[in-house]
Amino acid sequence: MMRILVFNAGSSSLKFSVFDLALTDSRIFKGEYEQFANGHCVLHYRTGNEPAEEHQRSETGATVLDVIHKVPTLLQEFGLADFSAVGHRVVHGGELFRAATLLDDSVMQKLDACNNLAPLHNPVSQAVIELSRKLWPGLPQVAVFDTAFHQTIPDYAHTYAVPKSWRDKGLRRFGFHGTSHHFVAWHVAKKLQQPLNTLRIISCHLGNGASICAINHGQSVDTSMGMTPMEGLVMGTRAGDVDPGIFSFLQRELGLDITAIEKELNNASGLQALAGTADLRLIEQRATAGDAEAQLAIHIYAYRVRKYIGAYAAAMGGLDVVVFAGGIGENSAAMRRRICERLEFLGLYLDDDHNRQLVLDDFAALQIQAVDSRVRVMVTRTNEQFMIAQEVRQLLESRQQPAASYRIPIAVSARHVHLSHAAVEQLFGPGHQLTLQRALAQKDGWAAMETVELIGPHGSFQKVRVLGPSRAATQIEISRTDTFTLGLDAPLRASGILQDTPAVRLRGPYGEITTDGLIVAARHIHMSPRDAVKLGLKDGDYVEMKFGAGERAVVFSHTLIRVKDTYSTEMHIDTDEANAAGISYCTDGELITMPDHQDVGVGALQHSSSS
Predict the structure, then answer these.
(1) Which among 9, 249, 295, 338 could bridge 302 via Cys, Cβ 3.0 to 4.6 Å?
(2) What confidence tier does 427 reach under pLDDT thresholds 50, 70, 90?
(3) Residues designated as active site
(4) How far, in Å, CA of 455 to CA of 507, rounded?
(5) All structural domains of the chain
């Protein structure tokens, strides 16, 4: 049995669910305490899956911390008493927490350091965790962080252009709704029956809180929320993007201090400020009746979302799927239509009939694009609590692996070129065959005698080694530093994913070609099937690798596992990564986190219900 109890604690509500991950339809209970007033609250609950009837009843309890004591008795009422673990949603993990984390006294102390980053959210979650540890003292308790999915955002996207002393204090963009965006991306990939690492997805989580995430081949590369959930889109009561200069302006003109301004930006701005209500349904009704303020609010909301979609399509070098989720994303056909207007230049065309007539059941991810649309437009329900349960399961399973250290040799890859057969003949002459110079650790590849010149708009590299044998498509692998010399912005990609990569010139002794296929290769571990079975890993998993010890130790997160019969177990990094970590060409590293499975289960995703 793998039965997980999940808590999602807010300042004014406590959501909780039970998932039995041994079942195809895994969610077996869902509850929520809300509407706290005068020492009472309302309990909503369902047993079984989402189509089951919802019940509600009045309960005593003035706060979230009051009612968590009621949860064990409530669950026992429905025969739910035995659990494998408890999972907790925590909004902000800061720089400290980059993945699901088992909670103990030491971790609880470290959580304190994140409270100032999310003062409205984290202290409540932490208090609920403390109580939960007392109510279920024998169970593993796991924190799953909203910010963790966004840890793959590159430094140039998460760094604010502010003084270094500010950045040294932790001032940077983190992003939120990560658990929702993570679920949406995997769910959509499953529904499309395409590997996630082949898709460029823009996930639009549109509700009272709203954010957009650019998910490039499985990784979050940018998101609209920043250091706090205030940045980005117009939301129910949050302003989203504003000029920081308004703080001094409002202090001079209205005498408001920083605390008052921040409170207004969080609680009295957004749709509430523009139209007098945060309820988009009411705003749309008033707009239809001719209310100018409601019409303006709708235009502003849609414009901000559309602007971010365009920006993120540019950031990813293209777009395959736009997904709408959250209360507004799921339910407002009019808002989806407005957002998609003027995106035809991206190849995105909406089918108005499909959009208007959409009926979204619990497991669906429905397509509403026109037949000639290159970009898919989809609508689905997010399922954060289910994703939390899955991350808890993965963490528990990883802890069941042998405790002994497992070390993996490392190879540092300098820039090199894989050529198609046609490219070999164009560069070295008709009928030319690559010549073996030396064998490599991976049996299906070898270094060739041949070299080429790699030429970009601003510079070039002489004698770049060609690796054999020839491939179906030409691929050039360089470091991020090399891109500045060449004057080209190569994307970070797993080998073989070459769609929308920049063109570069290659010059050989016989001729010259211009070809796409220029990438910065994502760090990865080639692994033999035998080692993969021994370690409980599979192709497509991600792990963490540690090099060195003590204060100078370096951890490489999000390292891709690639399993193949011909592979010998070896990690590949590029020269930039080796230089940053002080790694020599003959060393090894320790596998410290395994596995971050990329497949949470086709059946589970198809049959789990929204929470």
Answers:
(1) 338
(2) very high
(3) 146
(4) 8
(5) 3-145 (3.30.420.40), 178-387 (3.30.420.40), 398-409+524-596 (2.40.40.20), 415-517 (no CATH)
